[in-house]
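Purpose: get a first structural picture of the assembly so the mutagenesis plan has something to point at.
Setup: three entries, given in the order below. No constraints added.
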Amino acid sequence: MPMNTQGRPTRIADNIATGGYAETTSGSKGLEQSEALIYERGSVEQCGVDLPEPKGTATRLGGLERKSELGMPGLSEPETMRHYVRLSRKNYAIDLGLYPLGSCTMKHNPRLNEKMARLPGFADVHPMQPASTVQGAYAVIGELAHWLMTLCGMSGVAMSPKAGAHGEFCGMMAIRAKLDADGQSHRRRVLVPESAHGTNPATAVQCGFTVDEIPADETGRVDMEAFKAKLGDDVAGIMLTNPNTCGLFERDIREIADLIHEAGGYFYCDGANFNAIVGRVRPGDLGVDAMHINLHKTFSTPHGGGGPGSGPTVLSDALAPFAPVPYVVLKDKHWELVEHEADAEGQPFGRMAAFHGQMGMFTRALTYMMSHGSDGLKQVAEDAVLNANYIQARLKHVMTPAFDGICMHEALFDDRFLKDTGVTTLDFAKAMIDEGYHPMTMYFPLVVHGAMLIEPTETESKSGLDRFIDTLEALSLAAKAGEVERFQAAPVHAPTKRLDETKAARQPVLRWTAPAAEEPIAAE
Amino acid sequence: MRYLPHTDTDRKAMLEAIGVASIDDLFTDVPEAARLDGLIDLPTKQGELQVERAMAAMSNQNVSASSVPFFVGAGAYKHHIPATVDHLIQRSEFLTAYTPYQPEISQGTLQTLFEFQTQVAQLTGMDVANASMYDGSTACAEAVMMAARVTKRDKAVMAGTVHPHYVEASKTLAKYSSVSIEVTEPELDSLDKVIAAIDENTACVVVQTPDIFGQLHDLREISRIAHEKGALVIAAFTEVVALGLTEAPGAMGADIAVGEGQSIGVGLNFGGPYVGLFACKDDRRFIRQMPGRLAGETVDADGRRGFVLTLSTREQHIRRDKATSNICTNSGLCALAFTIHMTLLGEKGFRQMAQLSHENACALADALDAVEGVDVVNDAFFNEFAVRLPGNAADIVEKLAKVGVLGGVPASRLYPGQFEDILLVAATEVNTQADIEIFAKALGGVL
Amino acid sequence: MTTRYTEDHEWITVEGDVATVGITAYAAEQLGDVVFVELPEVGKTFKKGDEFAVVESVKAASEVYAPVDGEIVGVNDDLDGEPAKVNEDATGGGWFAKFKLADASQLEGLMDEDAYKAHIA
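Result (structure tokens, whole complex):
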């Protein structure tokens, strides 16, 4: 038989040295490539597009030609591709693994949504085209509004808010407008649990209210006695997250709604955690007057490294007339857009932003809803709650759940299990990075010491959850076994080690600037 | 359901591990009165194909910008976006990442934000920029509030030629604050009325160039006068491409520059999501009052360069009721698209794109001006201008649509009851000479 | 010249009718690395218990309260460039502001060093 003379060793030689070569000449390490800024790679002459040559003649700029320098470097197309692909590989992502950020609902982002959002009839239409040319786009807004109102059991919805906090602003503005319309302008105090997201107090203040904090009781829910004591004729309403930021359903929510209504106030619900109850519980049945819905959480529009989001806000009968412009209405099978306060039937409190809302998020969210249907959405809530409880049940012997009993879609732990180990919540979170996981939300909510808030979402499989649980269990045991240095050094397997945030804040460097020239340039 | 991995066997095993008999046992905290018996009255689940058909049916009812001669602007512009942009923003690691709160595994997002901030600062001629706002209108509103905090004054003056949606968004944000907003009567050819409204109590004056009518303004004089009176100048823009050819706000004395970045990388998307640009001078008073996220440079434990979100004590998650803004989610992925497109363009391509847009607008102006009864209003413009028609512009736009031309925005749609004979038209590098001729001919035909 | 302390971790040292105020080393350590101190304008007056400054670490912002009534007659401009002084030398170079005392008797209600040590123990 002919022998293959090009054989090469395929077995790792014995005694091969693997240490001592941690640093490389290029700064890259195999697939982990170092990547400079575009400012260090490109130049102002480089260009990655081919445009026709301008004639260079026409100018009607009225003498306002740009004389100041621009200085933005360009890169050719292949270099651009490599630059951003290399950078992308320094990010964790849902598509890479479980992303257990509590309060953030990091679920799978179906690619059908992306495909639908890119249909030319949605992606390539202008918001100010004549109504006759965008009937299908108005229909998407109208259809999504119908789904949201039906899922929430509410009679109105404002579609234009651009993110959750913008939706909060919308809801609280509607409450303010309603109070003013009813001669209740003296009502300025808004009750906010101390476990609330920071956006809640910030929003209340933005609407001219003052914030009065309500403490949590020992079960992690609103302290009813403290709440009742704070009611009065200057109370405008309450901003409550449900399920709350401890991952718990507010059992007394109906009583809270009744009491705030009796006191003359309104009930704003922060809908960030709607994923726990979608399809199973309608916020309208809980007495809610306004609630924003984060389409980028519950309805899977991608988070995109921080946005864009979308925050349609459902409104009760009392508040719906104060919804902002614009909105769509169906008249004789023809969709119309109401753009001006004077044309509105109600008394809109104003306009929140240019144009009509986050259309690109609407098409994705509607695609997601149609894919699931009412049965699939109910299953979403059930599996999300099941997964969180499974994590809590399987980790409670090594970690310390902050509260006893069943949780909703997220499991909250505190740092009692790390007591006397020298390992902090931060260290524990960073050690998860070395294990290939994004950390959970940490140090939030503030009502729990060293909080670790884990939200797995419904799109994690049981085997994936088991691996995650095994990892956290092993880390907990390692912390208790005294491996403190491993935690304090973590992460060591990430693209960078821990970053100096103190330096970043003390001497802010917020942009690239050209390094000083080595030799002074002679004056011309 | 294709997105849900559990089998019924899995669910049963998990319920057992939890120690409950059924899924209903996990929802016992829900008040009985609010527990639903069956399904909510909506359609049930569907496969990809069925959903795709339903969505496509709605998409097909719309006339897309690329399918007709298209001249609509007024705050959103049709430019060509290289294929590379959409491919890159669909990288899983960008698309499905959260806000970069864990910097060790978010350097991709953080470094691109740092590049974005630098590009925005360079474009606007300002020192620093944030990591984006929702859109131009909300960036404008936040700038007004920031100016009031910086100057500790509470009166804002907005030119009547600032995009009316930007004015309305600003008024909404200021509605229940101490800040009052005075909007001057829109003037097509000067800033005199705006200048006259500035006094010793003015926190800021907001002017847009090119303005909603496309008219370019020199901001140097108004800046000088505003600064003499201790007021800040906020320069707004809706067409960022203008900055490739016309003078930067920073070079004309602006203290804060805000605007819409949609033209670069983002696309029309029927109005959103877009990307708000927010830049200001490098002054500690300013930076600590900025809204939104900021990426900053630092080093890691080995001394290597890295990036983090910084100066977070301004923000709601730390400062709560004392935050500079309630903003949390921004326009991250649109900012990334902006940065990638701008990197492909570089200064050379960006200037070229601006010049082509301007030249097409000039050709369009000549063609429309030549139509009987039609007059171009502006004496200086970039890629958008106003024409006076011998009739109601809204009606004419509808008639043009019927003959397959999307011919602009009637000014009365932005100023109800005013400017009924004014049409706002825009051109960019995507328009062809043939498009322009079709538009001019169609306009002549429907008048 | 004696130093007194508040329950909110401000220290106050009086010379004549001018009091120097800062935050205690204990407070600085609890805050972590101080990255910024927002100081009041000279000439402003505060009542005891008013918020007169804000001290920021990377992840927290804390209000600092006036321990006594008084007018600001000086602020520590060095903190603008070197906020780290608050951590390194809280009761020395890390001082915040000088108050012209309106009512010296208010000092009597404050803790002495031993009492403060017991307070934070």
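Helices of chain C lie at 25-31, 78-81, 85-88, 113-120.
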